Amino acid sequence: MPMKAVMIGAGNAAFHLAPALQVCGLEWVQVYNRTLSKAQELACRLKNARAVCRPEEITDRAEVYFFALSDEALPEWASRLRFSGKTAVHVAGSVPLSVFGNHWAHGGVMYFFQTFSRLTPSPDFRHTPVCIEASDTDTLKLLEDWAGKLSDTVVAMNSAQRKALHLGGVFASNYANFMYTAAYDILREQNLDFSLLWPLIGQTVRKIRRFPPHEVQTGPAIRGDEAVLEQQARYLAESSVGKEYLEIYRLLATKIRERGKSRSR
Questions:
Q1: What string of pLDDT tens digits covers the 265 residues of the chain?
Q2: Would you say 226 and 234 are in contact if contact means Cβ atoms under 8 Å apart?
Q3: Which residues span the domain enclosing 251?
Q4: Whether residue 95 is found in the same domain as residue 187
Q5: Region for residue 191 given its phi and psi (left: phi exceeds 0; alpha: psi -120 to 50; beta: otherwise)
Q6: 30 DSSP β-pair partners
Q7: Quick one: CA dihedral 60, 63, 69, 72, positive or negative?
């Protein structure tokens, strides 16, 4: 029998996760969001879910409650809703399982290690790692079953490990994407297409799939080419777009040189 579920939140993660989790045996009965239009947008992607925007409208007749909220909002909501005998699951990377305290009979985490955006199609969940944690063995087995129906990579980890993974993702995805933004701006200023960088980006990814990233670092900083580093710094300083990135460029060059020196010892 499908388990009746409620999604608390209708942001980017919920927008992609809720439809995917339907195939795992979840029957969404409600989507809550403080903005009704966002709740309705997500509810329309589900089979029989009703959109609500007032906390008092959240049903107590579901079996599992998923929380897809910001890290700041999650603690308040985890203690705000207290439905006896129910299961609560959150999908955050940096919030510990202990956020549920003693307010719920069962607590769990399903952290889909992926980036989500309304602007892009849902990711390939089969190749998306799902990190799970639970307050008890039965809940862990339940999460493992759900995750296994979506992904080939299901990893049980504690809250500290998940927090480290999330931070690694911030560097590897969020901060890396900002570097792509810098490159995009610099090229656009000279009427160059960003697609010129795609082969370089692709080759870099292929290399770090085989070797530790620091072992395949290239460029003027790791070579200690001070003339090129200074030339590029001057270019940024004199560019209307580049000025925004000069401080970051110098800091990264310094850190790469320091790491290169420690590696060569």
A1: 789 999 999 999 999 999 999 989 899 999 999 999 999 999 999 999 999 999 999 999 999 999 999 999 999 999 999 888 999 999 999 999 999 998 899 999 999 999 999 889 999 999 999 999 999 999 999 999 999 999 999 999 999 999 999 999 999 999 999 999 999 999 999 999 999 999 999 999 999 999 999 999 999 999 999 999 999 999 999 999 999 999 999 999 999 999 988 765 5
A2: no
A3: 163-264
A4: no
A5: left
A6: 6, 50
A7: positive
Among residues 103, 99, 167, 102, the alpha carbon closest in space to that of 133 is found at 99
User: Do 246 and 135 belong to one domain?
Assistant: no
- How many independent structural domains does the chain possess? 2
Q: Tokens 């292929």 appear where?
A: 206
- Kindly provide the b/e burial profile for residues 107-143, where b requires at least 16 CB atoms within 10 angstroms of the residue's own CB: bbbbbbbbebeeeeeeeebeebbbbbbbbeeebbebb
Cβ atoms 157, 133 nearer than 8 A? yes
3-class secondary structure, 152: coil
Amino acid code (one letter) for 239: S
Is residue 52 located within the same domain as residue 137?
Answer: yes
* 106-112, strands of its sheet edge to edge: 50-52, 26-32, 3-8, 64-67, 87-90, 106-112, 130-134, 154-156
Report the CATH number that the domain containing residue 225 is assigned in CATH: 1.10.1040.20
